[in-house]
Structures are given as structure tokens and as C-alpha cells.
Amino acid sequence: MILAQEQGANMRPAGRVKEIEAGLGFAGKEGTLVLTNKRLIFVCTNEEGEDLPIGYYADEMLLYTEVEDLNSIPAQAPNIFISLEGASLKGHKEGLGRPSLEVSWHDSEGDHDVVFTETLTGRRKRNLNDWATIIQKIKDGSQKISALPGIPSTDTLEGKVMYVLSDMQEKGLFEIEEDVESEYGVDLDPDEVQAACDNLSAQRILIKYSDSSGDVYYRRASPLGGRTNPTRFQRLYHDLIVVEPTINTRTQPTRIK
């Protein structure tokens, strides 16, 4: 069961020297960090790249993997599978205040100690450093994991919407419409898409949000509740500058509250 995802997570070996190197731009490996009820999975196969603006004159390439379900993850290197049962975790903040999760574990290949750091940072209730507390609660059985309603069949528009939102990222109506049209080769009416999303929201399968400008966004409900996943179009914090990425006119940046 997928509980949360962090797209664009950067993985590097633990240690002060490696932290300094990362701060100087010697990046580690980027991908998507997935939390399930049994393990952490770092997925870095079939990556997609997206340029997000940094300031007025530069871009930063965000690398991530779309994870729609656990069966879509290749079960071999370079992907990393970490059992929660034997893992030791610490949440902290790296340079520039970026939330990070340090994970230590032992497997057949020996001892490992790595740090996962957020690339996308914005206003949300839970960040990557909060995963340590959540995981500890999962391990000791005190974390509430809610059962979610059944997902509609992809024969329906509601089912198609749920499929393109299976990465658990917040998306606006135009992005959902484009994703469904691209995935299924259909031509949709925006009003039909909004009606489907609102119907799913009424069933508490999707979570609906509005920002201060009135723009509406949807995200697949998490068994953990709350808002644990950012969008790729959130604010980036880079070199102490807060920037709203410039994106195409059919997609609006999301504010996480």
C-alpha cells in the first residue's frame, strides 16, 4: 500500500563531507521516494526530467519517476528497497533548510547509511523529515492508516481520473484533463472532468483544495490523511531565493497549506 511519495528526492551517502559536496552542487542520485506500510522504495528507473525556473535567469532540472502503483516498480537495481522493520531513521534539515530523511539499514550487501533530501519545498503540513516519526509509528503500530473507498473502474471517467492521480501529486483541472486525454486517447469536455473530480471528492477518494486565487486542485486521498505530497510546480527554495516556477498556461502553480 502506497502511503506517500516524494518526487525529485536526492539521495546521497550520509556524512558532513557529502552534505557539503551536495551544497556545492555535486548532486547525488535523484528519483522518487515511496513510502509503503512495509518499506521505503527509492525509484530511479524510467526517470522523467522537467526544467523548473530558479530566479529569472536559470533553470534546475528536476528528475523523478512516475510511480502509479507498486507493480510498476522494477524490482532490481538501481532501485532500492528498504524494509521498515530493520531501518533506523532520523529526520533533520540540510543546508538552506531543506528537509531530509537519514536512513540506516543492513541487508545482504552490508551496512548502508544514506540521506534523502527534498528538492521541492513548499508550505505543507508534513515534509520529508517528518517521515521518520511517521515510520516509527508505523513500526510500533500507533500510526492510524485509514481504509479508503474502492476505486472506480477505468471504464469510467472517474476511474481514468483516479489512474492519472495515482502518483499522489496535486494537480489542477487542466493538468488532469491533459493527462487523461494523453493516457487514454480521448477528447474531454472540461466540465465533465470537473464533475468527475467533484464526485470523487464527495466520496472522499480525492481531496479538493483551493488556493487564495480561487484555483482548484485535487489529490488522491492518502491512507495517512493530511497533505504529505508536494506538486512538481510548488515553490522551489534555492540559494535562499523563493521563486514561483513559470509553467504553461494550462497548469497553475499549487500552494500547499
Describe it.
- With 257 residues, this protein is an alpha+beta fold.
- The protein folds into 2 domains: 2-144, PH-domain like, CATH 2.30.29; 157-220, Arc Repressor Mutant, subunit A (Orthogonal Bundle), CATH 1.10.10.10.
- It has helices spanning 16-23, 131-140, 157-164, 173-184, 190-202; strands at residues 2-13, 29-36, 39-43, 48-54, 58-64, 80-83, 88-93, 99-107, 110-117, 171-172, 206-210, 216-220, 236-238, 241-243.
- Strands 6-3-2-1-9-8-7 form a 7-stranded antiparallel β-sheet.
How would you briefly describe this protein structure?
This protein is an alpha+beta fold and 257 residues long. It contains 5 helices and 14 strands. Helix content is 20%, strand content 33%.
Q: Percent of residues in helical segments?
A: 10-25%
Rounded average pLDDT: 77
Number of strands: 14
- As laid out across the biggest beta sheet, the strand order is 6-3-2-1-9-8-7
- Please, what is the oligomeric state? single chain
CATH class wording of the largest domain? Mainly Beta
Strand portion:
25-35%
The name of the CATH topology of the largest domain is PH-domain like
Shape: globular
Per DSSP, the total helix count is 5
Structural class by sheet pairing and helices: alpha+beta
Instruction: Give the domain tally.
Output: 2
| Integer-rounded radius of gyration | 18 Å
**Residue windows where pLDDT falls under 50 for at least 5 positions:** 227-257
Write the layout of secondary structure elements.
Elements lengths: L1 E12 L2 H8 L5 E8 L2 E5 L4 E7 L3 E7 L15 E4 L4 E6 L5 E9 L2 E8 L13 H10 L16 H8 L6 E2 H12 L5 H13 L3 E5 L5 E5 L15 E3 L2 E3 L14
